[in-house]
Amino acid sequence: MLKIKSYVKVNSIEEAYELNQKKTAIVLGGMVWLKMGNRNISTAIDLSGLGLAGIQETDEEFVIGCMTTLRELETDKRLNEYTQGAVRESVRHIVGVQFRNCATVGGSIWGRYGFSDVLTMFLGMDTWVELHNAGKIPLTEFVDRKKDNDILVNIIVKKQPLRVCYMSQRNTKTDFPVLTCCVSLIGNEARTVIGARPARAMVVEDQEDILGNFDQKSEEAKKEVIQKFADYAAEHVPTSGNMRGSKEYRTLLVKVLTRRAWEVVGGMKDEY
Q1: Which residue among 9, 38, 140, 185 has its CA within the 20 to 30 Å range from the CA of 28?
Q2: Which of 121, 139, 158 is the last residue of a domain?
Q3: Cα–Cα distance for residue pair 189/185, rounded to 1 Å
Q4: How much is the average pLDDT of 204-233?
Q5: What is the arithmetic mean of pLDDT over 13-20?
Q6: Distance between CA 151 and CA 113 in Å, rounded?
């Protein structure tokens, strides 16, 4: 059972930050995951009155407020045009529309959950987080930071030339994913992200530069390097087993989803 001693709908980020310095205080977000736990909360901090919901687009970036719902991500035409529908694909299997109308992108990113489709997707882009105290830092850095009492204000996606594909494997349509995969070409940078391992999402470091100059290769050469990199990813991504799948099954999925997603980005397949 979740027990809350004091509820505060704050009037400013500064007020939220001050209240959140207490170890037993917590920012509520969408309350869809938090309410399932057992804990005592001294102060529940509600950011819903600060205008931090919505997606703003400029020439350089998308600015996504921390209180933006997953449903807003799913239905935003501009963001989905930019990502070729990958953002929609990354959230459309998450429980149901009612759930996605409550769950927030800020809660998903801040939690850095091991099952998170949202974290996997945003790591596949040039994404930054804006924190009240620490300022703007790359999501690739934030994901490995120790959790603290800062406040996540915005998620920022830098607009660069982008081709991206998101895939996941689920045992049933609305269940947690067995494995998630996002691959992208951000400018000339090839990036592969694997999540639900079942640990938090990670960027696969291509230390052998297998996918280097990917766009300049012929279709036959692309097929060869994609298969080689899929094998490489399966060898270098740590996985483990739980009730949804064994370690061996997840390792196989790393290979299969990496290959399929890169075939989409490489233009060899038109659909997910």
Answers
A1: 140
A2: 158
A3: 5
A4: 95
A5: 96
A6: 17
What is the average per-residue pLDDT within 210-231?
95
User: Could you tell me if 189 and 252 lie in one domain?
Assistant: yes
Task: Note down the domain range covering 149.
Answer: 55-158
- Residue 33: per-residue pLDDT: 75
CB 44 within 8 A of CB 7: yes
Q: Is residue 15 included in any domain, yes or no?
A: yes
Write the pLDDT tens digit of every residue in 64-73.
999 999 999 9
DSSP 8-class letter at 69? B
Instruction: Report residue 114: phi and psi, to 5°.
Output: -70, -20
Please tell me what DSSP assigns to residue 104: B
Asked if residue 222 and residue 170 are part of one domain, the reply reads: yes
- pLDDT at position 272: 55
Element housing 243 (H / E): none
d(CA 179, CA 248): 12
Angle between helices 247-265 and 219-236 (to 10 degrees): 150
**What pLDDT does residue 271 have?**
64
* Domain CATH code at residue 82: 3.30.465.10
Within 13 Å of residue 148, how many CA atoms lie on the same side as its CB? 14
Residue type present at position 175: D
